[in-house]
Fold this protein.
Amino acid sequence: MNTAHLNFIDGAWVAGPSVASNINPSHLDDVIGHYTQAEASHVHLAVHAAQHAFAGWSTSGIQQRSDALDKIGTEILARREELGRFLSREEGKTLPEGIGEVTRAGHIFKFFAGECLRLAGETLPSVRPGIGVEITREALGVMGLITPFNFPIAIPAWKIAPALAYGNCVVFKPADLVPGSGWALADIISRSGIPPGVFNLVMGDGPLIGQAMVQHPGIAGISFTGSVAVGRRIAQDCAQLGKKVQLEMGGKNPQVVLDDADLPKAVELCVQSAYFSTGQRCTASSRLIVTEGIHDRFVQAMMERIATLKVGDALASGTDIGPVVSQRQLEQDLSYVPIAQTEGGVLVAGGLPTECHTGSKHAGYFMRPALITQTTPEMRINREEVFGPVASVIAVRDYEHALSVANDTEFGLSAGIATTSLKHATHFKRHAQAGMVMVNLPTAGVDYHVPFGGRKGSSAGPREQGRYAAEFYTTVKTAYTLA
């Protein structure tokens, strides 16, 4: 066995009690690497190191923090093709998507390098004469960051970068299925000049390591992206322990298509929203809500477009959709097709496992994108997050009916509308019950410098990304001075 990649604790690479293999979901006989597994004691070591480093880092000069983050971003961008290829090999998204994600991670670190130099407060007069008031933001403490498999470098970046920029120390746990991208990011951070203990990486079993982080009294806040069930448990635990919490937990995002939409553009944005990145995006549109006047033409055009999509090896030229991340995820995705059919849905495209379009003999977790029509809002396929290349079509009477169905969900992350009506677009932006709204654009795909997050069951706590990240990673102090 090749040498295992180690955890990073207090500025040193640290072995764990066991090692796990990292498997390429496009080629199951391709072992990408071996990654050591931490245990709860490693979490304690990492938190202790971070606590020790916090006093110095939180009061360090803003130029030091800016330079370190800028150096991280520079290396990521310089290696975007290498890292993007590795990410696609590990997670399964296509090579252009992998390179794009790495590029976004580099830009995130560059953005927060600038934010270090833009830290601002307020100076106000008191209502009492002769007294001045200062309002400032300070680092919260040691932050526990738990990330998912679907964006294995971008999501860690948008948690780690602001945490460090605002003077916090970090204990970071990447998803079990994709430790390699997280390790590669930690390797870059280890060479940035950040002092020992400021950043720590612990890899391993999600329930074991994640729970140890949530329960540790030395961690002041938890930022988690993942499933609803796990997120809700974390929220309960953090509430009992008095920890600050930030949760991103998925969605059941609607994409409305009105009669007046540009049909080719609507089809393309729906295909991108529902199926690209193999549907493994919390912002993916899995509910396509289509008005009656365009419904039949839309379904036919979608079927024709889906037939052209090439499913296969994430690294192969011409691949549109790579594998899903694991056997368990593939089984879950496939299971929703008969569930929908049993409830009255009609499968008109895909929905079956498939071989790689490149002709490779190596097995992978491949599935033809599924389109299910004649569904109704109460069906499970329209209530539960599948997290794969599966989309359903709901026929509605008109815009008002479409808006009602779009909002009929416990989730509220992203929502989209395809229309040429300024009236309907403007109304939808105001009345869609989602944290992010897209007009004539895919629901998946957001900039790195603006807030990311939802409402209802999708998110809890302050927004991620952009200047709004300060709401989670800092605490506000009000200071009075008698002149």
